[in-house]
Every structure is written in structure tokens, then in C-alpha cells.
Design a protein that fits this description.
It is a single chain. This protein has about 300 residues and is α+β, with helices and mostly antiparallel strands. The chain contains nine helices and twelve strands. The protein has three domains: about 110 residues, no CATH class; about 40 residues, no CATH class; about 140 residues, no CATH class. Strand 8 and strand 9 form a beta hairpin. Pfam families: RdgC.
């Protein structure tokens, strides 16, 4: 359950639904496995899995949700092989080559016939709503996965007025300045990894790992016109992570301070442990996310509802 990535979205209006109301609405769009002809299926599942009884998990005002996607696996090579055999059969029996439209129709027929026999794979995406902070936090490694969850959440709740969180300072400029000056902002330390991109040619990329980011070599690249696109940082609250130019946070790693908090608890079941972990994780993120935003000059609240702006 511990999040590995953070895609952070700001509610532009206060979120007023209760956990029970969210649970009821999500239950109406619950996940069901693919039937024989469905290429995929997407819906809500219980965050606690078989240990749960609700489509949300709520603690300290935070509301966790979990979307599940199941997809049929039909390798392109298999489809193309069956299609090639079919085309060869038509050529042999009818002495002709099917045109583009007929080939497309044949391919669709082949996919339709193979779907019932296809293997399936499933994955889950967790997210939680922080009403008091006006945030939606998604544990997704890509914006596409997060958007997929948000589309489903919007359909389930009726509306979802959120925008990607923004900082006042341009992330690339700020991170480049940190490396140029050789120091991270207050409360953070530079890690050993970064990605540099050329201002004149976006395809020109240099990736540095296990390096001294304040080295002359890296500084020379910056002076030559490159900027920092991704940067590894350590937060004093004992979280290591990588942040990019869109304020996407990846490869979260919780250090000893957080692990000690987990070790101090005595959970008697998997459900109790999930609750403990959720409480600790959201508590850490409640301090971590504002710290990250402050490092980039604070949050840009121009598009927010005045009520949220005053609370942020």
C-alpha cells in the first residue's frame, strides 16, 4: 500500500462528500472481471482487498480508493500469424489478395475469436482524497494511469474539479539553480542522480547516477546550456525521491525514521496493519508535500477557489 509515486492534484472547489457517500457512489461502478469478449474491464475494488467490506478506506479524514484494471493479453505476433494464415488461405482458394478494408475486418474477426481464450493481467492503482488539504494524491507512475483513475472517479462522483498542482517557480529553473549553487533548499539534501536536457535540443539528454551532482563536469554541462529535468533529493523527514519538471514525484523511499514508527505499532491483522500504514503514510505526506512546494517557491494558487487558496 505504501505509495511509490505521487501525482498531486488540487481541488479547485472544496470536497464535501463523506467517506460513506463516496463508498456508495463507487460501489455503483465496482470492478467486474472481463467477460469472454471484453478486451478490458475497469472499476473500483476494495482497498483492503479480501479483508475489506467497503470501496473506501477512511482514517483521520483521508479517503483512500483503489481502481482495478483487467486486460486480455493478445500478443500482436499471434494475431499477425493467424492473419497471415488466413490471407494465404484466401489467396490459395480464391486466387486474390484482400484489400486494406478486408484485411482490417479480418483482423477484427480474429481478435474477436481469440479473446475468449486470451490470458488476463490485472493491476491496481491507489489514490487518496485529502479533503482538509484540498488534494487528490494518486500513486501512479504515469499521467495516463492517473487520468484513467480520475475519469472513473469523475464518472462515479458526478464531478471532480481538480487540476495538477503548480508551484510559483519553474521547476527546471529551480533545480538547475540548486545544482549551480551546489546546495538544495532548506530541509532537503541533494541526492546522487539527475537528468539534464539541452535547451536547444530536447532530445539531447544526459543521465547521471551515483554521481556528485556538484561536480565540475555536471556544472560544465549546465553552463553549456543544459538544464535539470529530474533530480534526486532527500527530505529531512527521511524520504528519498526523484522529482521532475512537472512536480511528479517518483521512486519514493521511506527511511529509518518512518520505519521505526511502523515498528512501534502492534497490529493483529492485515487489516489493522493496513490502517496503521495508511495513518503513518498520510501523516508523513501531510508534511512532505507542503515542504516540496515550499522548495519551489510555494504553491501557485491562481486557479483555486478562494476558500481553498486561503487554507493552502
Amino acid at each position: 500500500m505504501w505509495f511509490k509515486n505521487l501525482l498531486i492534484y488540487r481541488f479547485t472547489k472544496p470536497f464535501t462528500l463523506t467517506a460513506d457517500e463516496v463508498d456508495q457512489k463507487l460501489g455503483e461502478m465496482a470492478f467486474s472481471p472481463c467477460n469472454s469478449q471484453d478486451p478490458s474491464s475497469y472499476g473500483w475494488t476494495m482497498p483492503l482487498g479480501s479483508q475489506g467490506s467497503q470501496y473506501v478506506h477512511s482514517a483521520n479524514g483521508y479517503i483512500m480508493v483503489c481502481a482495478k484494471k483487467q486486460e486480455k493479453i493478445l500478443p500482436a505476433a499471434v494475431i499477425n500469424e493467424v492473419l497471415a494464415d488466413k490471407l494465404e488461405e484466401i489467396k490459395s482458394q480464391e486466387d486474390r489478395r484482400p484489400g486494406r478494408k478486408e484485411r482490417t475486418d479480418l483482423k477484427e474477426e480474429i481478435i474477436f475469436s481469440l479473446l475468449p481464450r486470451a490470458f488476463t493481467r490485472s493491476n491496481r492503482v491507489f489514490a487518496y482524497i485529502a479533503p482538509q488539504e484540498g488534494l487528490l494524491i494518486v500513486d501512479a507512475g504515469s499521467h495516463n494511469k492517473a487520468e484513467e483513475l480520475m475519469v472513473l472517479l469523475r464518472e462515479s462522483l458526478g464531478s471532480l474539479p481538480v487540476i495538477p498542482i503548480k508551484a510559483k517557480n519553474v521547476a527546471q529553473h529551480a533545480m538547475t539553480e540548486w545544482l549551480t549553487n551546489g546546495s538544495a533548499p532548506k530541509g532537503f539534501e541533494l541526492g546522487g542522480e539527475c537528468e539534464l536536457r539541452d535547451k536547444a535540443d530536447d532530445s539531447a539528454v544526459i543521465r547521471c547516477k551515483n554521481q556528485n551532482l556538484c561536480s565540475t563536469e555536471i556544472n560544465n554541462h549546465i553552463q553549456a546550456g543544459m538544464f535539470v529535468n529530474k533530480l534526486a533529493l532527500h527530505w529531512v523527514g527521511d524520504i528519498d525521491f526523484i522529482v521532475d519538471d512537472q512536480l511528479t514525484i517518483k521512486r519514493l523511499s521511506f527511511g529509518d525514521l518512518v520505519q521505526e514508527k511502523i515498528g512501534e505499532t502492534n497490529a493483529d491483522s492485515a487489516a489493522e496493519q493496513f490502517d496503521v500504514d495508511f495513518n503513518i503514510m498520510t501523516g508523513e505526506f501531510a508534511k512532505f508535500i507542503p515542504a516540496v512546494l515550499d522548495a519551489f517557491g510555494g504553491e501557485d494558487t491562481a486557479e483555486q477557489d478562494p476558500v481553498i487558496s486561503s487554507a493552502a
